[in-house]
């Protein structure tokens, strides 16, 4: 009798584990399944930034396409390029940003990464810009004119 109970217990446990680890194909066929998709339409630009935060927005073609946006914690004097590297996947070549979040510049089309601080074009490279906190920074992949 004792062996029979152990056998039944192991079978019940096995069945439960197999059912819990199912591949979920039934859920894919069910039309009532809810799916949530983020469109990045709400950029959070209306939210106030704390003195130790900056908002980093990554766009393409002068903001026509939104790639990513993050609020990062900073200390006064932090270098923008360092904060960008800590926040996003960035590739650079001799100090020039060539890719952000795997979106690359295109020399043939004349598209390069440019950035603005509080809506104004930057006067120095990202590797030289010292953050104060509270800035709204946008990196945009755009055509050079």
How would you sum up this structure, described in words?
The protein has 145 residues and is an alpha+beta fold. The protein contains three helices and eight strands, in the order ααββαββββββ. The chain has a five-stranded mixed β-sheet with strand order 2-1-8-6-7, with helices on one face. Strand 1 (53-60) and strand 2 (65-73) form a beta hairpin. The longest helix is centred in the first third of the chain and has 19 residues, at 2-20. It is elongated, with a radius of gyration of 25 Å. The N and C termini lie far apart (86 Å). The relative contact order is 0.18.
Task: Summarize this structure briefly.
The chain has 145 residues and is of the alpha+beta class. It contains three helices and eight strands.
Distance between the termini: 86 Å
The assigned structural class equals alpha+beta
Radius of gyration: 25 Å
The total strand number stands at 8
Poorly predicted parts: 25-43
Order of helices and strands: HHEEHEEEEEE
Strand content: 25-35%
Helix content: 10-25%
Q: Can you tell me the overall shape?
A: elongated
Report the oligomer: single chain
- What's the pLDDT, averaged over the residues? 80
Strand order of the largest sheet: 2-1-8-6-7
Question: Which secondary structure elements does this structure contain, and how are they paired or packed?
Answer:
Blueprint: H1 2-20, H2 25-29, E1 53-60, E2 65-73, H3 80-87, E3 90-93, E4 96-100, E5 103-104, E6 111-117, E7 120-121, E8 136-143
Parallel strand pairs: 1-8
Antiparallel strand pairs: 1-2, 3-4, 4-5, 6-7, 6-8
